[in-house]
């Protein structure tokens, strides 16, 4: 009987310790953060009305996707880079049009381990479901050579992130309008090309699904920004409700664990994520609230960097912030400003990127 009691007590201590360790992993919201007022980094001009995803190549050069879902017929879409004076210049404007919609809308993007640029073409903006595509821009000596379609059949394609030889892609809106998901492909699979997702094979590439919280009744999208930390853990944010999930993986790239690490009314919308190894932090854009946050993975806490009311972005204030990146030591935040929303009460003539001195 005494042995049974000892064993039961031992198991209780083990369970308590595990619970304690698990609790320490939860992310808290800091209410005492020092705000940093943004300044203007770039005015993108009349032809770049909807900026979105950003990427850095191995040399630290900055690239920006111009989506232009509303003004495509007039201005097209393109990928920009920035010269030595950080002025925007066209890098590539020959992305492959979809054969049916005759449009292409680049959004999230990142350079792969092969030095080529991988980007998501969101065809939902062209009025078609399950038409979105993963595109690769082949690069030689820093110059774009040509672009090719690798995967078709995403619905609302969003973020693109690499970990070693696998790419991870968010599809923010499934057909039932409540779920979203993350797909993953190896570089070997991508090199075989012509992958067409359909009802029978999506499960082979889908690593996780997410469901909007029940209280979210407005039309919205789901999983959006994603970022890997230095250990290879993937953090994913839900656009529609602000929930942040942490995922761990086996060496094969298969999902090992999945856990909600942040669910708070303090943040109800997560758009773009970017991981900065120097600060061991993920920078989060809150599209709905004209705000940006720092998720410090050392302290497991989220702090507000800046928030403002409706603005046109001309002076650097946030105007529907959608993407984040750290470039030359500064935090850059792209202002999407294409659709009216909670704080974005008007669509203005300025198309900008904000800058924060961290």
Provide structural commentary:
With 358 residues, this protein is mainly beta. The protein has one domain: 6 Propeller (Neuraminidase). The chain has 4 helices and 26 strands. It has helices spanning 2-24, 72-75, 187-192, 202-205, and strands at residues 28-30, 39-43, 51-56, 62-66, 78-82, 88-92, 106-111, 117-121, 132-140, 143-154, 157-163, 166-171, 179-186, 195-196, 206-211, 223-228, 234-238, 244-249, 255-262, 273-276, 281-286, 291-296, 301-307, 321-327, 330-335, 352-357. The chain has a 5-stranded mixed β-sheet, with no helix packed on it. A 5-stranded mixed β-sheet has the order 7-8-9-10-14. It has a 4-stranded antiparallel β-sheet with strand order 2-26-25-24, with no helix packed on it. It is globular. The termini are far apart. Mean pLDDT is 93; it is low at 1-25.
State the separation between the terminal residues, measured CA to CA.
Answer: 61 Å
What number of domains?
1
Beta content comes to 35-45%
Approximate helicity band: 10-25%
Look up the CATH topology: Neuraminidase
**Radius of gyration computed on alpha carbons:** 21 Å
Number of strands: 26
Question: What is the structure about, briefly put?
Answer:
The protein is mostly beta strands. The protein has helices at residues 2-24, 72-75, 187-192, 202-205; strands spanning 28-30, 39-43, 51-56, 62-66, 78-82, 88-92, 106-111, 117-121, 132-140, 143-154, 157-163, 166-171, 179-186, 195-196, 206-211, 223-228, 234-238, 244-249, 255-262, 273-276, 281-286, 291-296, 301-307, 321-327, 330-335, 352-357. Strands 1-23-22-21-20 form a five-stranded mixed sheet, with no helix packed on it.
């Amino acid at each position: 009987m005494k042995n049974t009691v000892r064993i039961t007590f031992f198991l209780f201590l083990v369970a308590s310790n595990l619970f304690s360790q698990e609790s320490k992993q939860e992310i808290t919201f800091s209410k005492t953060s020092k705000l940093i007022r943004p300044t203007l980094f770039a005015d993108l001009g009349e032809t770049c009305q909807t900026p979105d995803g950003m990427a850095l190549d191995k040399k630290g050069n900055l690239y920006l996707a111009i989506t232009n879902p509303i003004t495509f017929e007039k201005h097209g879409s393109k990928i920009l880079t920035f010269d030595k004076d950080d002025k925007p210049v066209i890098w590539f404007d020959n992305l492959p049009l979809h054969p049916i919609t005759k449009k292409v809308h680049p959004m999230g993007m990142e350079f792969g381990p092969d030095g080529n640029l991988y980007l998501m073409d969101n065809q939902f903006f062209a009025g078609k479901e399950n038409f979105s595509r993963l595109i690769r821009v082949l690069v030689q000596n820093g110059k774009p050579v040509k672009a090719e379609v690798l995967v078709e059949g995403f619905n609302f394609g969003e973020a693109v992130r690499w970990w070693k030889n696998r790419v991870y892609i968010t599809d923010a809106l499934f057909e039932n309008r409540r779920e979203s998901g993350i797909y993953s492909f190896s570089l070997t699979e991508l090199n075989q090309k012509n992958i067409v997702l359909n009802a029978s094979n999506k499960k082979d590439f889908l690593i996780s699904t997410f469901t909007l919280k029940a209280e979210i009744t407005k039309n919205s999208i789901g999983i959006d920004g994603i970022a890997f930390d230095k250990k290879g853990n993937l953090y994913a944010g839900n656009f529609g409700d602000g929930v942040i999930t942490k995922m761990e993986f086996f060496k094969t790239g298969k999902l090992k664990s999945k856990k909600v690490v942040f669910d708070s009314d303090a943040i109800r919308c997560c758009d773009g994520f970017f991981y900065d190894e120097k600060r061991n932090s993920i920078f989060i854009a809150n599209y709905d609230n004209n705000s940006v946050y720092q998720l410090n993975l050392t302290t497991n806490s989220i702090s507000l960097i800046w928030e403002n009311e409706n603005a046109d972005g001309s002076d650097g204030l946030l105007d529907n912030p959608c993407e984040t990146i750290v470039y030359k030591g500064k935090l850059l935040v792209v202002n999407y400003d294409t659709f009216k929303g909670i704080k974005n009460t008007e669509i203005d003539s300025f198309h900008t990127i904000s800058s924060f001195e961290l």
